[in-house]
Every structure is written in C-alpha cells, then in structure tokens.
Amino acid sequence: MYFSNKVQNLNIIYNIAIGLTERLLKFIALFNQKIKFGVEGRSQTFSTLRNTIQATDKCIWFHCASLGEYEQGLPVFKEIKKLYKSHKIILTFFSPSGYEIRKNTEIADAVLYLPIDTKQNAKRFVNHINPELTVFVKYDIWPNYLNELKKIKGRAILISALFRKNQSYFKWYGRFMRDTLFAFEHIFTQDDKSKKLLETIGYHNTSVSGDTRFDRVYSQLEQNNSLDFVSEFKAENLCFVAGSTWPEDEDILVDHINTSTDKTKFIIAPHNIKSAQIQKLKQSIKKKAILFSEKEGALLHDFQVLIVDTIGLLSKIYFYADIAYVGGAIGTTGLHNILEPAVFGVPIIIGYNHKKFPEATRMIKNAGVLEIKDVEGFQLIMSKLYEDKTFLSALGEKNSDFIKKNTGAVVQIMDYLRI
Fold it and tell me: What is the mean pLDDT of residues 89-101?
C-alpha cells in the first residue's frame, strides 16, 4: 500500500508539472523563436489530424524526439512502411529541429508536433489515431501517451534504446517511470548493459539489436553522394571536414587553419547557422574563405576555407573528407554523429567529453577515432595525419569496417514484427 500511494503521488506530481510546463512554454514562446515554433505547431496538431486521419483508417505511429532520432529510426520506418502498405503513417516530433527539417518527408502521411503529455492530450491523440503499431526511438518516453496505448492494447516497441544506471527508472524513487516502460511489448537495446539494467527492474522482453544508426549510415553508400561545388572546391587537395561544430570547436579549428602552411582545403559546417555566428566565424579566419551562400559565380578552387551556412548537406560532404572532425565534445553540448563520416572510411577527431556516447568509446578503442582536449593536442594529431598517409588510411579503414560489422539491427527488429 505504501509503494502504491507513493506511485500515485508521483503520478499526480508529474501531471501537475506537465500541465504547468504546457503553460510555461506558451509564455517562453513570446521571447524564444524555437519554442514559438513548437507551441504554434502543437496548436495545429489536432486540426491536422482531423483533416488527415479518418476513423476507418488503419494507422502506424512513429515518434522521435528530434532529427537525430528520426535519422536513427528511418531505416526501420521504411521497412515498416513496406510491410504495412495499407496503413497510414503518423510521424511525430517533440523538437522543432526535427519537425521543421522533416515535415515534408515522404515516409509519413501526417507529420506533427506531439502535443504536451497531459492526460487529456494523450487520450485525445491516441484515441483518434488508434495505432495498430507504435514505434518510439531511443528515448522521449511519455507516461500518459504510453498509458493510453496500454488501454487500447496497441502494440508498442522501443528501438535503439540506451539506458544508464543513473536514470530515474533504476532509482528507488523511479517506480512511476519504471511502470511506463512496461507499456512496450518489446524493447530493442543498443547494448548489453541496457538489457541488463532493464532486467534489474523485472523487464525481460528485450533484445540487443544494436544501433539502427549503423544501418542508416551504411545505406548512404548506396546513394549518389556527389556535390559539384565540393568537387570544385577540393580539386586534388587534401580535404578536412569539420561537421556540426560549436564555437569552442571552432576556436581550435581556426587556430590551426590560420597557422597552416600547406594546401589543405577546410570545410566547416557549423551547428548554428545564424548569420551573426557565421560572420563571426568567417571574420576570425585569416585564409581566403567563402560561404556556401556566396558560392554562385565564384571560383571555388581559389578559396582555402568553405563555410557551409545551410543544412542538409553534411552527410554528403563527408564523402569528400580525407580527415573529419565532429563537434560537440570539446564543450558540453554533446557529441554529434560520428558514424556519418566513418562510413566513408575517414579518420575522425573528436573532443574528450564523449562518455555518454558509447559508439565513440568503442570507435576510439577500435583505433579509428582520436580524441583531443585542446589546441596542442589537435595540432599534434593533425601533424601526424599530414605526415603519415599510411596511418591516415589505416584509421579510415578501421572506421568503415566498424560500421559494416555493426549493421543488422533493422533485420532483427523486422523479424520480430513479422512474427
């Protein structure tokens, strides 16, 4: 009875907090453009549903927190779409960075912002689409939505899940969130540690399938990755590509670029492409630099630095890299996707704050990824890569082999769904 009351109390606290959050976001939206996108988008979700999904439609629901989770889930989404050809697909995002970039994706019949996880929103949403199958990617686990899925007895799975022992599910006070996980009929984890953590709370419907991102990036090899402007810019030179960089990454990169005496070409694709940040970056570079937005009519091979002030091209730009740097781990913002350059057989440099990204630890151990802490460390690594082409090539081969060996998660998930 004691624990039952505690769970009930936490449930009440959660629902009060989530209701207050919904109101607070509307206030913050008055001052924050990103939050404003989410608030305005959620206000249109139910009207879009009414116009798109009818009571007679059979539905599949995919949910992703943001763009990264969408890319992670996409190879599974594609296979499910083939398997359930007569169903309508609803894709939801929580973050504007996912919705705004993929709102026109052909994978779904309706792309929506997921309404805030109040009991009323969850019941209204789930009852309207009545999904035959629901797929959540990695995390972004919302109790009220999952409780409603349990009520309608809809199938729900969690894919590419990654758990850590410091999460609330595995703490004495985490019973409320733990119970939520049991709404999933099966959880596919990225690693054995996550599977074992789930078993400590009595959840046993698990499989270690690995990370579906490996399948996603491996499929990039089947695409046409050529970009004429990058070919012109690179010409026959060694090309260094820095992707998803933040100011702390750029401080290190710019120091190296400004002191570089060779003919290496540098491409920088910042995470933040706001004009003020881009101009600040360009002005800090002493070499001849050009923005992607300035390329029309320019003789690109005359420039040494190309700054990509747009989105959606990075995965193809990595195709041209001889050396790659992936941002986010020098500071505390979080390491970005190191699998995208790895699939092309490129040696990769990252910052040292990568402990929450198991693929980074594994790839460092595999010796295809190198970590740095400061400018001096970066300069040493770059000197080694410049001087020893055999070393450079060996690192790249280790990364491409690592990607290939870790594919197969999609097949395992789809084998389960076909049963």
Answer: 93
Handedness of CA 279, 282, 283, 289 (dihedral sign): negative
Query: pTM, whole model, 2 decimals?
Result: 0.85
Residue 133 near residue 62 (C-beta atoms within 8 A): no
* Residue 386 counted as domain residue: yes
Nearest to 148 by CA among 175, 167, 176, 129: 129
* CATH number of residue 228's parent domain: 3.40.50.2000
Q: Which residue range is the domain that position 379 belongs to?
A: 223-405
- Answer whether residue 417 is part of any domain: no
Structure tokens at 24: 């607070």
- Residues 63, 197 share a domain: yes
Instruction: Give residue for tokens 């949910």.
Output: 63
Q: Are residues 197 and 252 in the same domain?
A: no
Confidence band for 3, pLDDT divided at 50, 70 and 90: very low
The sign of the dihedral angle between the CA atoms of 188, 192, 193, 195 is positive
Structural domain count, the chain: 2
pLDDT of residue 97: 84
Are 25 and 39 spatial neighbours (Cβ–Cβ below 8 Å)?
yes
Question: Is the pLDDT at 352 greater than 50, yes or no?
Answer: yes
pLDDT, the chain, mean: 93
* Closest to 324 in 3D by CA, of 284, 369, 363: 369
Q: Report how far residue 105's alpha carbon sits from residue 339's, in angstroms, rounded to the nearest whole number.
A: 22
